[in-house]
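Discussion board: Methods & Data

I've been asked by a reviewer to show the raw model output for two of the constructs in my manuscript, not just the figures. I'm not sure how much to include, so I'm pasting the format here to get opinions. Each protein appears as its amino acid sequence followed by a line of discrete structure tokens. Is this the kind of thing reviewers expect to see in a supplement, or should I convert it first? Here is construct A:
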Amino acid sequence: MARRIDPVCKLCRREGMKLFLKGERCFSPKCSFEKRSYAPGMHGKKGSFRHKESDFAMQLREKQRARRIYGVQERQFRRYFRSAQRVKGMTGVTLLVTLERRLDNVVYRMGVADSRAQARQLVRHGHFLINGHNHNIPSYLVEVGDTIEVRPSSRSNGYFKALTDRLGQRSVPGWLQFDEVRMMGHVVGVPDRQAVDLPLNEQLIVEYYSR
């Protein structure tokens, strides 16, 4: 994903909901969305009182929310959607399940990172092994039976040393298992719609790309 250098809190305000892009800060009083929940820009406050959004606007916003939550660029997100269309079943659910299987999301879900952006950076820096092999591609899609662990050489890193006191504070979804002592996770199943605990309406995303 292209690097963002502007404040990511603007994205939450633009989408009208918390996207939890800054980890623990999003749960604290410092969260910008708590102070200013209206859209950014000089017309942000006025825009919140405008007429009802069109169907296209709602579809676009839902697509943007999903894309920004998972940190995926438009071209890659569209590829995920096209792949989901070729799979039997509900396209929207298949899309969300595919996004959940991304390695950076799995690292975040295991509680090893405070946000998906931080998880992406940790993966990029080569701190993880998949089935015993080095892996630094955040978009890698995990499969049932895969093992994801922190590299032994990385455990002496200051970040992972401090992490041991915080592991276990976040619940791990049922399709993953995580050993806090060994810093090792296992993919024991395929995520379903109930496992995607995000306030997204995937049908609106399908409608957006089906125009």
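Construct B, same format:
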Amino acid sequence: MKVFITKPIAERGMGVFKKAHIDVTVWKQRKALSQDELIQKLQKYEAAICIGKYRLDENFFSKCSHLKAVSLLSVGYDNVDIAAAKKWNVPVGNTPGVLSKATADTAFLLMQMVARKAIYSYRMILENQWVERNPMDNLGIDLDGKTLGIFGLGRIGFEMAKMCQRTFGMNIIYYNRSRNEEAENELGAKKVSFDKLLQTSDVISIHSALTSETKNLFDKTAFEKMKPTSIFVNTSRGGVVDEKALIAALKKKTIWGAGLDVTNPEPMKSNNPLLKMETVAVLPHIGSATVETRSEMSRLAAENVTAVLVGKTMPNQIK
């Protein structure tokens, strides 16, 4: 049994393969394979862990229908055509749950960085602009008692809501297709319409999947409904946001600030105007980037593949 992995993973994941006596080949070059190159490589393997921006579509699955399993090293799977995977009978897994806290920590960090203009203030030091100030210069905003609006209250959004309530006493509202009774019972969270989320939130934190329904959902119209004092935080997918509309909203002070761990495209170009804005914080997609979290993600991805290869059901198969 042979498995191909498109990027190096943590030793914890490699240990799963070693214990099961499965041969593993890891693509260690920084330059990613093209889809055609990946398809060609996989002809010699029984399974794969695909990490990165690979488009796993009809073309991929039709030419790799021999694969017994594919796993991602992520929760999101907007790069995978699940219908095509089912058509060609290739089970695909992801790594849910283990990265919820780490990603929520990043959203919580971004919210505070934006509220206190942390990136801008740090840049002022680097540019030798730390000078004597008047008491009303370069002020941030308080978060105590404000309203947090969660768009997509799943595991990550729930962790974010808990931290915001426990640290800042924030009121929690959310927009979901279905109710989150755990959040309502534990946090007093209230389910609201999308418009009410936009209109009444002091901070909006995005934790949804990228789908045809959410693509560019946060556009000019959405930003115009938000408070001029509001903070927009996105740690989900860059495609949920119309970036040009976000830039315009910040320039016109339609909203107060934005914290982004995801952008569209990624990597973001260094001349992007968002990087120079006073009330913006941008991070290079580090949501799950801790030693502990990536180790657990590697374990889950390896177990997804190994389970199928030894005749068991994939534990985290995307349905």
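Answer (T.O., handling editor elsewhere):
This is acceptable in a supplement if you add a one-line summary per construct. For B, something like: The chain has a mean pLDDT of 97.
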